[in-house]
Specification:
Chain lengths: 294, 199
């Protein structure tokens, strides 16, 4: 009997964990994204690649968050995880209090459609559709009526300053204009989160700046959470917090002021050097201990 | 706890048929050259099928009895032409899937279900198959008729028309069947992988 009781109480543990302490509940409602102990391992042939080695990250509702890291750092993997495009090998990702690992494909699609707006480096507009049709596509999936689609599509394109290019195809628009259509499309179903993957990567300085200002404005005005993966120095300076990912681990989550006048690459190099120096120091210390003890 | 309202995850994601049809039609018209080539494969196969049927009708009209060996041979030819048709369409559809990996990935990021992608590709190939085989069947019939104008009066036109409809049905069915493997492949792709693919 004793063993049965203990099994019962064990299985009840996760459920109790959800109720948790008042402190946890407060955090839960405040954080739109919660990443807990996330590991992600890929296999290239037989060899495991540890893209993420145990990540904990909270992103607050209405925050403008930048994820920074050199290529191969696991930055993109983390980003995809937060966007519900990839599932963790272990650990949990909560988006708006939903554990994405528990969702079936239909629910995941719903989440992508209604809760998350994506913006890509390469714009990814559907080339055969006009600006307006690109913006209304997510609304079609969400089951909006035709009038709703047209009215809202127009309004969103006007919001990004493209009210006069409704019926142009992506090929007839400049890079900056295409990215603005993509922003309008990301807003189509009033998402809680906008995920922008290097949104300024394919744009020149001035246009990139405009896109950043537009994202910042949307973040301020409508309170939508903006998460960007970026290399862009202008971008991280506008963000509320910067998460730095190196070698599959979060090295630091800091306000952008701490970066000072340093560039992203310079800062990353410095972080990496510091880390390596610390490791080297640790090894030296261990060696000294060994020497001393012998 | 009382203030917290956990997100309700629903699954009301839909792509109404008329919208899917519109998108598929757009995909065809925008890539008309490619579509014509895919359609031409079906067209030729079905034109051949129709001409075999029509030739039989012409021979009937002339009162000629076919020998079993001849019938067997023509059946064999028909089977071969349909097979070639089938492989051709699968190949074109595979190419058109590969070409559109990024687009498929984007669709999925915007919340499209696997079945939307499959529907889009199937509707597209059904349209191509229908028009391709309609044109093919008419060409096949015209060809046989024009080379045998003398039988115009005695030809069993009702059977000819039924054969024509059958050919269109076969062509459309083959197109859709041939598009299923590529469409499945497209739909099964992970959104991330699909977008990362550089073609």
């Amino acid at each position: 009997m004793t063993s049965a009781t203990s099994t019962d109480s064990n299985s009840a543990l996760p459920a109790m964990g959800l109720d948790a302490t008042p402190d946890e509940a407060y955090n839960a409602s405040e954080n739109i994204v919660r990443v807990r102990g996330v590991k992600r391992t890929y296999y290239i042939g037989e060899n495991p690649v540890h893209a993420l080695r145990g990540i904990d990250l909270d992103i607050k509702r209405g925050e403008f968050m930048a994820i920074m890291g050199p290529s191969g750092s696991g930055k993109s993997t983390l980003f995809n995880m937060v966007g519900g495009l990839d599932k963790p090998t272990s650990g949990t990702v909560f988006i708006d209090e939903v554990d994405i690992a528990q969702l079936d494909p239909g629910e995941l699609a719903w989440l992508r459609c209604r809760k998350i707006g994506y913006i890509f480096q390469t714009f990814n507009l559907i080339p055969v559709m006009t600006a307006l049709e690109n913006v209304t596509l997510p609304m079609i999936f969400a089951g909006a009526s035709l009038e709703e689609q047209m009215e809202k599509g127009r309004r969103l394109l006007e919001l990004v300053g493209l009210g006069h290019r409704l019926h142009n195809k992506p090929g007839q628009l400049s890079g900056g204009q295409q990215q603005r259509v993509a922003i309008a499309r990301a807003l189509a179903n009033d998402p809680a989160i906008i995920l922008a993957d290097e949104p300024t990567g394919n744009l020149d300085q001035k246009v990139g700046e405009e896109i950043i200002m537009m994202l910042k404005r949307l973040n301020k005005e409508s309170g939508v959470t903006v998460i960007t993966a970026t290399h862009d120095d202008k971008m991280y300076k506008r963000s509320d917090r910067v998460a730095i990912v190196i070698d599959g681990e979060i090295q630091a989550v800091i306000p952008p002021d701490l970066l000072g006048d340093n560039t992203v690459d310079g800062f990353l190099q410095q972080m990496k050097d510091d880390k390596e120096a610390a490791e080297a120091a640790a090894i030296t210390a261990t060696n000294e201990t060994i020497v001393a003890s012998s | 706890m009382a203030t917290m309202s956990p997100t309700r995850v629903e699954r009301q994601i839909s792509l109404p048929f008329n919208q899917a049809f519109k998108i598929a039609l757009r995909n065809i018209t925008i890539r008309l050259g490619r579509a014509m080539i895919t359609g031409a494969g079906t067209m030729l196969g079905i034109a051949f099928l129709m001409s075999v049927f029509a030739s039989k009708l012409v021979l009937q009209a002339k009162g000629v009895q076919l020998e079993p060996a001849q019938i067997q041979k023509s059946n064999w030819l028909v089977a071969m032409s349909l097979l070639v048709c089938f492989v051709g369409i699968t190949n074109s559809m595979l190419m058109s899937v590969t070409e559109r990996y990024k687009e498929i990935g984007t669709f999925k990021c915007l919340g499209a279900l696997d079945k939307f992608i499959i529907n889009l590709f199937l509707i597209e190939s059904a349209l191509l198959g229908f028009f391709g085989s309609l044109v093919g069947a008419i060409i096949g019939l015209l060809f046989v008729w024009l080379t045998n104008l003398s039988v115009t009066g005695t030809l069993d036109w009702v059977s000819a028309l039924l054969n024509l409809l059958a050919c269109v049905a076969v062509g459309t069915f083959l197109s859709v069947a041939a598009a299923i493997p590529p469409a499945m492949r497209a739909a099964k792709m992970q959104a991330v992988d699909a977008m990362r693919t550089e073609v």
